[in-house]
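User: quick one, fold this
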Amino acid sequence: MFARLGASFGAVCAAFAVLTACNGSGPPPLPSGARATRDGAPAVAADGKYRIIYSFDGAYGVGGPNGGPPLAAPVLDAAGNLYGPAGGGTGNYIDCNGPCGVIFKMSQSGGKWKESVALNISSWFHQAWPDSALAFDQKGNMYGGIGEWIYKLAPSGSGSWSFTPIYKNTHDAPGGVVPDSAGNLYGWLGKGVDYCGTIGELSPRSSGWGYADLHNICRKDGFSPGGSDPRSPFSFDSRGNLYGTQYTGGPYRATNGYGTAFEMIRGGNGKWTYRVLHKFGAFRADGQNPWGGLAIGKSDSAYGTTIDGGPHGHGEIFE
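Assistant:
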């Protein structure tokens, strides 16, 4: 599902930028002093706050050795380089239904950015595209999701990376994982009750990765009053508690529910407690169906967005 979202978004916004402004409402008015190119876009932004640092030349799933379009927001490493997943690549179209994508790297020197391919996924994996955001652990390893798999990218010297699938999920597009300070990974993992999935933990061990269920998404009757179908990686607060959103589920049965925002509280005994922070669709003008995750701010505030609901029916930003 992330790949399909990335494909449709990439068809509209083929350029990767520090800031992105794509709303489908036609080109905005040009800033004072800027001149237009043939397609109506300003050649130079007069205020200097927005600039395109790389434009992908590959179509989603069918070409472009340097990748394109990007499929998730990029992440920064300690040196200020950007990494992210993209379509394209040089894969075998028979195995991948198109090239299986790349992990791109953006590095900066002298104020100029250069794009390169950190890893061609099709050289290692021939079943799906990398379609979730990457996450760094404290050792500099990267983790992400591709199809039903969680994978690890480990630096192997001279700027190269090794690719290792570490866990096969029972769901397509698990949405990525987030590591804690000990190197454990958390995300929507495992089959759970009625194959609705679980919030799970992957722990590194000498013999591989160990898996533990933390919370079943569904009850035994198949209903998900606490929410269902998380579509973005979770977030940690300063105390080590997890936060996230569920795209559907909740107590309102008009459809499949309008989703929830939740917290996973880490107990001193190693147990986790799932707590619903908000059930979307709770009142007439409430937002519905949060697609993204939660940004954790100061004073225990969490921020996010919904793609539906609100007074105009087109989503909201919430705190």
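User: anything notable?
Assistant: The helical segments are 2-12, 93-96.
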